[in-house]
Amino acid sequence: MDGSPLANATIELIPLGTTEGVGAFGNSDENGVFYLTTKQGKDDIPPGEYKVTVSRLLNPDGSLPDPNVPPIESQAKETIPAHYLDPEKTRLRLTITPEKKQYEIALEKVKK
Protein backbone atom coordinates (compact mmCIF):
# COMPACT_ATOMS: atom_id res chain seq x y z
CA MET A 1 0.00 0.00 0.00
CA ASP A 2 1.34 3.38 -1.02
CA GLY A 3 4.56 1.72 -2.20
CA SER A 4 5.21 -0.32 0.96
CA PRO A 5 4.65 -4.06 1.49
CA LEU A 6 1.26 -4.84 3.02
CA ALA A 7 1.50 -7.61 5.62
CA ASN A 8 -1.38 -9.77 6.85
CA ALA A 9 -3.79 -8.91 4.06
CA THR A 10 -6.30 -11.29 2.51
CA ILE A 11 -6.41 -11.20 -1.28
CA GLU A 12 -9.27 -12.68 -3.30
CA LEU A 13 -9.55 -13.12 -7.07
CA ILE A 14 -13.06 -13.16 -8.56
CA PRO A 15 -13.37 -14.44 -12.15
CA LEU A 16 -14.63 -12.01 -14.80
CA GLY A 17 -16.34 -12.75 -18.11
CA THR A 18 -15.46 -16.14 -19.52
CA THR A 19 -12.71 -16.89 -16.99
CA GLU A 20 -13.21 -20.41 -15.67
CA GLY A 21 -13.23 -21.51 -12.06
CA VAL A 22 -14.53 -19.98 -8.86
CA GLY A 23 -11.57 -17.75 -8.07
CA ALA A 24 -8.62 -17.86 -5.71
CA PHE A 25 -7.43 -16.40 -2.42
CA GLY A 26 -4.38 -16.05 -0.24
CA ASN A 27 -2.78 -14.06 2.57
CA SER A 28 0.26 -11.81 2.45
CA ASP A 29 3.24 -12.44 4.69
CA GLU A 30 5.24 -9.84 6.63
CA ASN A 31 6.97 -8.81 3.37
CA GLY A 32 3.72 -8.38 1.47
CA VAL A 33 4.33 -11.55 -0.55
CA PHE A 34 1.24 -13.65 -1.18
CA TYR A 35 0.55 -17.08 -2.61
CA LEU A 36 -2.83 -17.79 -4.13
CA THR A 37 -4.72 -21.06 -4.26
CA THR A 38 -8.10 -21.92 -5.68
CA LYS A 39 -10.99 -22.42 -3.30
CA GLN A 40 -10.45 -26.16 -3.84
CA GLY A 41 -6.87 -25.80 -2.56
CA LYS A 42 -5.15 -26.08 -5.95
CA ASP A 43 -2.21 -23.94 -7.10
CA ASP A 44 -3.17 -23.91 -10.78
CA ILE A 45 -5.37 -20.83 -11.11
CA PRO A 46 -7.16 -20.75 -14.48
CA PRO A 47 -5.82 -18.08 -16.84
CA GLY A 48 -8.07 -15.11 -17.40
CA GLU A 49 -9.30 -11.79 -16.03
CA TYR A 50 -10.08 -11.34 -12.34
CA LYS A 51 -11.42 -8.65 -10.04
CA VAL A 52 -9.29 -8.33 -6.91
CA THR A 53 -10.45 -7.56 -3.39
CA VAL A 54 -8.11 -6.91 -0.45
CA SER A 55 -8.89 -6.89 3.26
CA ARG A 56 -6.84 -6.56 6.45
CA LEU A 57 -8.31 -6.68 9.93
CA LEU A 58 -6.22 -5.48 12.88
CA ASN A 59 -6.93 -4.93 16.55
CA PRO A 60 -6.73 -1.35 17.88
CA ASP A 61 -3.16 -2.03 19.09
CA GLY A 62 -2.12 -3.17 15.58
CA SER A 63 -2.04 -6.88 16.40
CA LEU A 64 -3.79 -9.59 14.43
CA PRO A 65 -7.24 -10.66 15.61
CA ASP A 66 -7.61 -13.98 17.41
CA PRO A 67 -8.77 -16.48 14.77
CA ASN A 68 -10.84 -18.25 17.46
CA VAL A 69 -12.96 -15.16 18.16
CA PRO A 70 -15.95 -14.67 15.84
CA PRO A 71 -15.67 -11.42 13.82
CA ILE A 72 -18.83 -9.99 15.44
CA GLU A 73 -17.17 -10.34 18.87
CA SER A 74 -13.74 -9.11 17.79
CA GLN A 75 -12.37 -5.62 18.39
CA ALA A 76 -10.54 -5.81 15.04
CA LYS A 77 -11.24 -3.14 12.42
CA GLU A 78 -10.72 -3.06 8.67
CA THR A 79 -7.57 -1.13 7.70
CA ILE A 80 -7.97 -1.16 3.90
CA PRO A 81 -9.97 1.56 2.09
CA ALA A 82 -13.53 0.38 1.48
CA HIS A 83 -13.33 0.52 -2.31
CA TYR A 84 -10.83 -2.39 -2.28
CA LEU A 85 -13.11 -4.60 -0.15
CA ASP A 86 -16.29 -4.61 -2.21
CA PRO A 87 -16.33 -6.89 -5.26
CA GLU A 88 -18.80 -4.50 -6.92
CA LYS A 89 -16.65 -1.37 -6.33
CA THR A 90 -13.07 -2.56 -6.63
CA ARG A 91 -11.20 -1.33 -9.68
CA LEU A 92 -8.32 -3.71 -9.07
CA ARG A 93 -7.91 -6.20 -11.92
CA LEU A 94 -5.42 -8.96 -12.53
CA THR A 95 -4.81 -10.97 -15.69
CA ILE A 96 -3.45 -14.45 -14.95
CA THR A 97 -1.43 -16.05 -17.74
CA PRO A 98 0.26 -19.48 -17.86
CA GLU A 99 3.66 -17.87 -18.52
CA LYS A 100 3.71 -15.44 -15.60
CA LYS A 101 4.24 -16.69 -12.04
CA GLN A 102 4.59 -13.43 -10.06
CA TYR A 103 2.16 -10.54 -9.82
CA GLU A 104 2.06 -7.25 -7.95
CA ILE A 105 -1.06 -5.56 -6.66
CA ALA A 106 -0.68 -1.86 -5.82
CA LEU A 107 -3.06 -0.18 -3.38
CA GLU A 108 -3.28 3.51 -2.50
CA LYS A 109 -5.00 5.16 0.42
CA VAL A 110 -7.58 7.74 -0.47
CA LYS A 111 -6.01 11.19 -0.15
CA LYS A 112 -8.06 13.66 1.87
**Main structural class:** mainly beta
Low-confidence stretches: none
Distance between the termini: 16 Å
From N to C, what is the helix and strand string?
EEEEEEE
Strand content: 25-35%
Indicate the percent of residues in helices: under 10%
Q: What's the overall average pLDDT, rounded? A: 89
Rg over CA atoms, rounded to whole Å, is 15 Å
Order of strands across the main sheet: 3-2-1-4-7
Number of strands: 7
Per DSSP, the total helix count is 0
Gross geometry: globular
Question: What characterizes the major β-sheet?
Answer: 5 strands, antiparallel
Describe this structure in words.
By secondary structure, the chain is mainly β. It is 0% helix and 25% strand. The protein has no helices and seven strands. It has strands spanning 10-15, 24-27, 37-38, 48-55, 57-58, 77-78, 93-96. It has a five-stranded antiparallel β-sheet with strand order 3-2-1-4-7, with no helix packed on it. The protein has a two-stranded antiparallel sheet with strand order 5-6. A hairpin with an 8-residue loop joins strand 1 (10-15) and strand 2. The mean pLDDT is 89.
